[in-house]
Amino acid sequence: MEFRPLEQSDVKRLQRLFMESLSDLIRRERFEDADLLDEEVARLNTTIQDSFDDEDVQLYVALKDEIILGACATLPPNEIITAHADVEKGAIEIGCFYVSPHVQRQGVGRFLLESVQQELSRHEASVFYLDAGFPTAQTYWRQQLGEPVLILEHYWGPEASHMIWKRDIKK
């Protein structure tokens, strides 16, 4: 597998991966909010553009045989994180973390996480934050990162929490 920054020629394929992954996630989570998919896709498209325009935002892709299997971004911590956690100066958020439904549970997510942590370590970052609102994502991140530092109970409504993790970057 290859890990590298997003290139302009990847954009359409990455947009398809986001749409496919989000559609699958929303179906599995049984969300009935009709606007959720459009809102999330719009947010991700903004992040794609920011990755070309803003030096603080970087999107990475995991590929095999030129097929994008997954993606993640490094960016300044989002509003949910900064509003609820005492964010360290210079901290980074790992976000926009998506793996194609066709290759989930095959090590792509772990590869992305390890690769992005190595990249952050090369840039001398010391800590990262990661947050999740979707229950299946929360389960995955608990398996990968352990317990979150903060659980925002009922953040999205009754029985719908939001979780925030903070981790030192392995150097």
Q: Count of DSSP E strands? A: 7
Give a short account of the largest sheet. Answer: 7 strands, mixed
Structural class: alpha+beta
Principal-axis shape: globular
Distance between the termini: 22 Å
- The ordered string of helix (H) and strand (E) elements is EHHEEHEHEHEE
Note poorly predicted spans. Answer: none
Q: What is the annotated CATH architecture?
A: 3-Layer(aba) Sandwich
CATH topology: Aminopeptidase
Strand fraction = 25-35%
Radius of gyration: 15 Å
Estimate percent helicity.
40-55%
CATH C-level label = Alpha Beta
Separate helix tally: 5
Overall mean pLDDT score? Answer: 91
CATH superfamily: Gcn5-related N-acetyltransferase (GNAT)
Q: What's the arrangement of strands in the largest beta sheet?
A: 1-2-3-4-5-7-6
